[in-house]
Amino acid sequence: MHIFFEVMDYKSLRKILENKFEEAKITETADIDWIMVEILGVSRSMLPFSKISKEQEKQILSLAEMRLSHIPLAYIFGKASFYGRDFKVNKNVLIPRMDTEILVEAVINEIKKRKMEQSVLDIGTGSAIIPITISLETGSRCTAVDVSEAALRVALVNVHDYAANVELLHSNLFENLNGRRFDFIVSNPPYIESDIIESLESEVKDYEPILALDGGSDGLDFYRKIIADAKSHLNENGMIFFEIGYNQKNSVSKLLEDDFCEIKCLKDYGGNDRVVFAKLRKL
Ligand code: GLN
Description:
- With 283 residues, the protein is α/β, with parallel strands linked by helices.
- It is 37% helix and 21% strand.
- It contains ten helices and eleven strands.
- Strands 7-6-5-8-9-11-10 form a seven-stranded mixed beta sheet, with helices on both faces. A two-stranded antiparallel ribbon has the order 1-2.
- A hairpin with a 5-residue loop joins strand 10 and strand 11.
- The longest helix is centred in the N-terminal third of the chain and has 15 residues.
- It is elongated and about 75 Å long.
- Bound molecules: glutamine.
- The site of glutamine has 12 residues, from helix 6.
- Glutamine binds next to helix 6.
């Protein structure tokens, strides 16, 4: 006896979903492909040759429905990719951004220049993409703090998945560090001006944690707080590395000037200022 399954092809289903995305004003139609890749278990280039069963179609439609209500894909899948690795994420942590790779790379380069392991502190670690990547790429031990216990639970899963040499601590900035010192301090703090948040796209303002985004009225609150205490938590020759907003290079550099020298800035993949780093001044 033959059993016939009704099958839909990739092109027809994609067309249907493209129209729905257009209606919902979601321009990232590539997300349709990523949903299909996830459900069909094939690579993106194989999608046009894939047959889709009724059951798979149902699953694809249900994930697409979530995306159509503006939930970011990373939260739908519970994972996101950063520096070539997958990390678990949920609504309690910021979704990794490609631009943060520039920050991580700056730290990795400096560690490699010194030709020995450095102790690294990551402030506001979220899903812990920063310390895990630094530790796996350089062998250095990292300490990572976050004020959010919910974020630290996600971080713990990721640290465990990669068996990374990362110590996680619940701490509001330096509060629970008992004066410990590190060679490098790194942070991708919340840096969006409070008033701007309402104007961000729904995917960000309605789903990503406000705690990870809001940098106070001028967006600089966390740079001020971190820089004020950085000196007493850095070893001699210590360095500090920040991700910054596209328009914050001058203000963050200014905040650094008293205690730090050799202030440098790096641009992101879109050509915007994205990373500022500097060396602790000698006494
Ligand atoms: N450190 C995490 C990241 O870079 C979280 C940053 C944040 O929540 N502001 O993704």
